[in-house]
Design brief:
By secondary structure, the protein is of the alpha/beta class. It has a domain of 264 residues: NAD(P)-binding Rossmann-like Domain (Rossmann fold, 3-Layer(aba) Sandwich), CATH 3.40.50.720. 45% of the residues lie in helices and 14% in strands. The chain has a 7-stranded parallel sheet with strand order 3-2-1-4-5-6-11, with helices on both faces. It has a two-stranded parallel ribbon with strand order 7-10. The protein has a two-stranded parallel ribbon with strand order 8-13. Helix 7 links the parallel strand 4 and strand 5. Helix 11 packs across helix 13. The N and C termini lie far apart (80 Å). The protein binds uridine-5'-diphosphate-glucuronic acid. The site of uridine-5'-diphosphate-glucuronic acid has 20 residues, from helix 9 and strand 8. It is found in: Golgi apparatus, Golgi stack membrane.
């Protein structure tokens, strides 16, 4: 074929080939950008974040300045001190435990995903508080294995205080997957990284009084069976205890589970009854007070935060070393579970009466039958094991503890002009 007879056709061919080249290079360029983003450590958590519990900021981590901050925060400043990774450090218990560890000279690094299960400004305020005492909180999720591995590369943690969790009994009916994500998958993700460490850390973690579920024998003892959880929350905490057993058995990780009993106090959680009762009483709003069948009492073994902190520190101090290394068990390791309660259950109606007295405001009580929402009718801890092994001895009764809580509440929400965005 005489190509010269078709000059236009030849031009179109050239045009086609340059279009093909352009398309090819565009793909290469987009591909490079994609690979860069996918491999960049700061993007990892974005890909792994849980859509059901939004983190309000995009997290970023990595780089020399970040590593230095991590190391400085985790540096031990006392003889025989620990280097502790505290997960859920911007949470209620996490903040108090981190501050206490730092005060006594342990190195502390926080990790928190700052999700919006409750008002994240409260979590940010707790973060500020910790920052002032030298505790850095890394923003990230316990499901982010790349981040956890990095943290263990930067700091050889001696201990992990694992408090990151999806808390709250009733919310489990609204957002069940968030419980599986944090309390089951997140826990496994953390244990996987811990077991791989050359020097495995000892792990102390938050279980819950809710594992006693529908048990009727009181007080609840660690020896009792825990096979009747009343909520998905309780079921995920119970699963955590079984998972702990497995990692202890296979990899030699030292694991201590603490069954917390309705912890309350300053910097507390706005989703908990004592907190939003305070807010609603002050706002003249009626409060739902649950009661059992035939006007049966609903009661909790409310435990003050400072007592819980002492229990947590006692558990860390008595935790034996893990025995494994690099994913291999070298010998049997410690496996423990303790109740951390107050041993004196208080009916919810009495809690309200105490609040009325402290606030000097009459509550608008709306007494109703305990809804089928996962709540159990009562909790009551036997703490003799924790007393014996950890030296645990709660000293704050509900009246004294609530006074301290209310003082903090009024100060926090009035001084800072913050709104009590409780639920
Ligand atoms: O002990 C525990 O392990 C658990 O303690 C609390 O759970 P809960 O005891 O249900 O604490 P609140 O939500 O503050 O409820 C306290 C009491 O107030 C009652 N309540 C709650 C809400 C309400 O509107 N009215 C009401 O009477 C509940 O039934 C319960 O008896 C925490 O929220 C859980 O995260 C924790 O794991």
């Amino acid at each position: 074929m005489d190509k010269s007879a078709y000059p236009y056709h030849g031009g179109r061919l050239r045009w086609h080939s340059s279009l093909a080249k352009l398309t090819f290079w565009s793909f290469v360029f987009i591909g490079i950008i994609f690979i860069f983003f996918y491999r960049s450590p700061s993007s990892v958590s974005r890909f792994h974040s849980d859509p059901s519990r939004r983190s309000l900021r995009t997290s970023s981590w990595g780089g020399p300045a970040w590593e230095k901050k991590v190391q400085t925060s985790a540096r031990i400043r006392s003889r025989n001190g620990f280097s502790v990774l505290v997960t859920g450090a911007a949470g209620f218990v996490g903040t108090h435990v981190s501050a206490a560890l730092k005060r006594r000279g342990d190195g502390v690094l926080g990790l928190d995903n700052f999700n919006d299960y409750y008002d994240p400004t409260l979590k940010r305020a707790r973060q500020e508080l910790l920052e002032r005492s030298g505790v850095f909180i890394v923003e990230g999720d316990i499901n982010d294995a790349a981040l956890l591995k990095k943290l263990f590369q930067v700091v050889p943690f001696t201990h992990v205080m694992h408090l990151a969790a999806q808390a709250g009994v009733r919310y489990a009916m609204q957002n069940p997957s968030s419980y599986v994500h944090s309390n089951v998958a997140g826990f496994v993700s953390l244990l996987e990284v811990c077991k791989e460490a050359t020097s495995q850390p000892a792990i102390v973690w938050a279980s819950s009084s809710s594992v006693y579920g529908l048990n009727t024998k009181v007080p609840f003892s660690e020896k009792d069976k825990t096979d009747q959880p009343a909520s998905l929350y309780a079921a995920t905490k119970k699963a955590g205890e079984e998972i702990a057993h497995t990692y202890n058995h296979i990899y030699g990780l030292s694991l201590t589970g603490l069954r917390f009993f309705t912890v309350y106090g300053p910097w507390g959680r706005p989703d908990m009854a004592y907190f939003f009762f305070t807010k609603d009483i002050l706002n003249g709003k009626s409060i739902p007070i649950f009661e059992g069948e035939n006007h049966g009492t609903v009661a909790r073994d409310f435990t003050y935060i400072d007592d819980i902190v002492k229990g947590c520190l006692g558990a860390l101090d008595t935790a034996q070393k893990s025995t494994g290394s690099g994913g291999k068990k070298k010998g049997p390791a410690q496996l423990r579970v303790f109740n951390l309660g107050n041993t004196s259950p208080v009916p919810v109606t009495n809690l309200v009466t105490i609040l009325e007295r402290i606030l000097k405001v009459k509550a608008k009580r709306n007494v109703m039958k305990l809804p089928r929402n996962g709540d159990v009718q009562f909790t009551h801890a036997n703490i003799s094991l924790a007393h014996r092994e950890l030296g645990y001895k709660p000293t704050t009764d509900l009246q004294a503890g609530l006074k301290k809580f209310v003082r903090w509440y009024l100060n926090y929400y009035s001084a800072a002009g913050k709104k009590a965005d409780a639920r």
